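hey can u check if this looks right to u? its 179 residues, i copy pasted from the old doc so theres a chance i mangled smth
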Amino acid sequence: ATNNTNKKIIYLSIPLIIFGIFIIFHYKSYINFKLFVGFGIFFVLSIKFFLKKNIITNVIKKNKKIIFMLIGLFHGLTNAGGSLISKYFQEIIKNDKRLLQSHIAFSYLIFASSQYILINILSNNIVFNFKNFEILLLSAVSYIIGKKIFLHLSFKKYLFFLNIMIFLSGLWLILSGLG
């Protein structure tokens, strides 16, 4: 299931990430995408409070392809697809912290790589410069620190902190969209 899921993330999300980036390049002055996606993240977080778990799980299982495509579009528009993919995998992977983290990490890698390459192509920038190196170094250090913290958390605490981070990303999008 892992390889199949990873393949679906690649071929369903990347085209919509690309489409989202093209929309941003052409329509960012007309639409506040940060507000749109920030409220979208809050909507996704709040669904859990209003619907029964089995309804959510059934909807997700029946609409995997559409969900991957929407998440790719959200990521292309705002760079916030990671929050939504994290929520998606929380509903699918119930008791395996390592598998959950593995799917989320792979998704982030695919999302960030495809977005980074396309933005560099569209903006005619040099693909590798000092700022990009800093971001890469910060990502590596964050991953190492996160991995150490991850090993000491129970699955329940891991989900709690993951959801706090998702909430904060939605809040950040809304606040930065208003400013």
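The mean pLDDT is 79.
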